[in-house]
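ARCHIVE RECORD
Type: protein–small molecule complex
Small molecule: 2-acetamido-2-deoxy-beta-D-glucopyranose
Source of inputs: curated submission
Record status: active
Notes field left blank by submitter.
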Amino acid sequence: MAFDWRSLFGYQTFKMVRVKDLRLGVIFRIFQLIILIYILFEIIYNQRYLKTEAPVPGAIRVTLQAPNDLDIPSYCNGATPCTFWGANEIQYPSDSAGYAFFTTRATARNYPNPPGCNSLRTTSPSDPCFFKPSNNNVTILPTSYIGGIENYTMMIEHSIRGEATSIAIRNGLMDGTLFYSDGKTVYKKITNASRTQDNPRADGDIFTIQDLLTASGANLDAPSTAPGADKAAGETYRSSGIVIAIVINYQNVRFKTDQLVYSYLPRVIDGNEYKVTENILNSTDGSITIIDRHGIRFVFQQNGSIGVFDFVSLLTSLVASIALLKVAELIVEIIMLRFLPEKEVYEDVKFDETTYRRGEVEVNKADEKKYQKRDEEQN
Ligand SMILES: *[C@@H]1O[C@H](CO)[C@@H](O)[C@H](O)[C@H]1NC(C)=O
Ligand SMILES: *[C@@H]1O[C@H](CO)[C@@H](O)[C@H](O)[C@H]1NC(C)=O
Ligand SMILES: *[C@@H]1O[C@H](CO)[C@@H](O)[C@H](O)[C@H]1NC(C)=O
Ligand SMILES: *[C@@H]1O[C@H](CO)[C@@H](O)[C@H](O)[C@H]1NC(C)=O
Ligand SMILES: *[C@@H]1O[C@H](CO)[C@@H](O)[C@H](O)[C@H]1NC(C)=O
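STRUCTURE (tokenized, with ligand):
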């Protein structure tokens, strides 16, 4: 038999059966419609056309500013007096990447240097010059609250970049939202207009400390639940210190692939107190001043998912979701072959059966003629 080129270069295609059954047709279209809506929702609403990645943190800078006028708040009239500090004294340390600490209660003591000692240079633990906070101290500031801390304003600046994408942006170019600790209720929206309204040259987001305390669900005058707090004396968070974790979540704006937005998600960490000790060595007389600070520790964490439009991502999502359409076919097929009263008729048309005998295909008489005729025409 000669080699038939037509079998090599012939085009092969599937043969289909069109089932003219209104019930099946309607069910099929309904399934298709539901799946199509789901696919559109996934791709458009959930932005499957983006190539996304987690943002790489840039810098977070937090600065504090004193309000123009301060009253004497009511908590200053209790057993603990108040002291009024400038913004630079309250924030410690002044430069802090990813966090900020604001003093709410402070004590300062100066420990004079025993004559002839250098407390940085001691030869053994029993050396009398080995520094120990001792009774020989001069109180510079008795334990005091920092007055009006809630009314100080803080400015937050932050930035991110992408690794796989070319995104690199600071918050001054994005819109933001400060949420309550439930992560859903909006406390305040920040846009370029609201940012520049407070200060035309401001690039960061300005909140009062009270704004962030309220949003995170913290109250400085509430009794502290920290294990180290003096509960019998009713020690408050103002005295023990408090930790507030703020997640900054970055996202693309739906339908605007080149715009990003962020949200602040603050939450107070229950029972977490915070204390920082500042040591200042006077190199002239060798005395050491210790400032014992309790206060609000804001910890920032940058997270989210940022992306750019990417055709291959869109294609991948499309192909993955189109496979879902097969599910509609599968369900209708099962209904057709298993549940309808006419299932046998449909099975007959769907499957062409050959009958085998002794390993040979037996062609029925009617078809035999047809095949002979076709073969003759071809040759
Ligand atoms: C803080 O600001 C509020 C609202 O402007 C004001 O009522 C309050 O007296 C201020 N507190 C202090 C200590 O200045
Ligand atoms: C400071 O000195 C006083 C007595 O003058 C003493 O009661 C107190 O415990 C000392 N404080 C520290 C932290 O050593
Ligand atoms: C923000 O607003 C100011 C003043 O209205 C304007 O000069 C500036 O270009 C705006 N910035 C952005 C990023 O839109
Ligand atoms: C360090 O001590 C000397 C001597 O007591 C004093 O004159 C000076 O003001 C102190 N310096 C600081 C920064 O406290
Ligand atoms: C960071 O964001 C991703 C995606 O939005 C999320 O799955 C993950 O839980 C987030 N992680 C934290 C620590 O918030």
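CURATOR ANNOTATION: Residues 247, 303-305 surround 2-acetamido-2-deoxy-beta-D-glucopyranose (ligand 5) (CB under 6 Å).
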